[in-house]
Structures are given as C-alpha cells and as structure tokens.
Design goal:
With about 170 residues, this protein is an alpha/beta fold. Helices cover about 35% and strands about 20% of the residues. It is built from 5 helices and 6 strands. It has a 6-stranded mixed β-sheet, with helices on both faces. β1, α1 and β2 form a beta-alpha-beta unit. The longest helix is centred in the middle third of the chain and has 15 residues. It is globular, with a radius of gyration of 15 Å. The termini are far apart.
Length: about 170
C-alpha cells in the first residue's frame, strides 16, 4: 500500500506587473503572498515592476537562473492593451507551455465575469525546472487562480497527480 505523501513547501517568487501600483496599493501581490504562506509555502522574493517587456523578462530570468525559486507567479499585464506585455515577455522563456492552465483559468472565470474572460491572456509554463504562472492583475482573478488551480497543483498530496512530483524530472533529457 502506498504511503501518503507529506506536504513539501516550495519557494515561490511573486512579481506584480504594473505602472501604477506600489507596495501600499499592491492588493493582488499581497493576496498571493498571504495565500502561499497560509498554504505552507515560502516566499522567495516579491517585487513590483513596470509594464516593460525587458524589465519583466530580466527579473524572471534572474529567478530562473538562480534555481532557488521553484515557482514564479506574476500578476498583471495579461490583458489586451498596448502596455499588457507579460505573456509575450515570458512565454519566450518557457521550455514548455502548460496549455491547460489558461484554458482552465478562463473556464473558471466565466462563472464570475462571463464572456469578459476572453480578454485574459493568462498563461503558464516551465523554464529550467521553474513553474511560471502569469495571472491577471485583479485580486479576484488572483484568488480564483490560486484557490481553484494553483494551490492544489503545488501540493504533493493532490491525487492522481500534481506539479510538485514533477520537479525532480523537469530537467531530464
């Protein structure tokens, strides 16, 4: 009989992408930190950066190269305006895209915001053994994504499978 798996805390970096938010007004980033710590994970780093494709890419690239964070979660910059650059900034870094994440996120969002969910370009992927989730900037979207998708997949006890058990195999050749 298989032994139950113990919870494995992960190191998670949080990046808020916004031209207007600061530490006092970053409700989405704060909500992510609150939830990941309540779940038993560790905050590796938290930053806020402007909607600048190169600054965003540089910060996340450093986290990927550092190998300390297991997960990077961004909030903001996934819409359709000219300043929303998160998907194109980060998808180029992915070794693999997690296609189902954006689809599932939009499906879950539909019940709350209807067809407006098609404006979200939420994506996820893997880069150098680091899971990356790119979420919209609203605190409601962050809560929905964490509570309904990310938290369970970052918990080794989730069956039949979870992302945590894949971590040691992400660099296989």
């Amino acid at each position: 009989m298989a032994q139950p798996q113990a919870f494995q805390p992960l190191r998670i970096a949080v990046l808020t992408v916004s031209d207007t938010r600061d530490a006092a007004t970053d409700t989405s980033g704060a909500r992510l930190v609150e939830r990941l710590e309540a779940a038993g994970h560790m905050l590796h780093d938290k930053r806020i950066c402007a909607d600048d494709i190169y600054e965003l890419r540089a910060i996340v690239s450093r986290w990927i190269a550092d190998e300390a964070p297991d997960v990077v979660i961004t909030t903001g910059g996934t819409g359709l305006t000219g300043r929303d650059v998160t998907p194109q900034a980060l998808s180029i870094l992915f070794d693999r895209e997690i296609d189902g994440f954006g689809e599932m996120f939009r499906m879950l969002s539909y019940k709350d915001i209807g067809t407006s969910t098609l404006q979200s370009r939420a994506i996820a992927g893997v880069a150098k053994a680091t899971f990356i989730f790119c979420l919209p900037g609203s605190s409601g979207a962050v809560a929905d994504a964490w509570d309904n998708l990310i938290a369970a997949q970052l918990d080794r006890r989730t069956k039949p499978c979870n992302l945590v058990e894949l971590l040691p195999r992400l660099t296989e050749r």
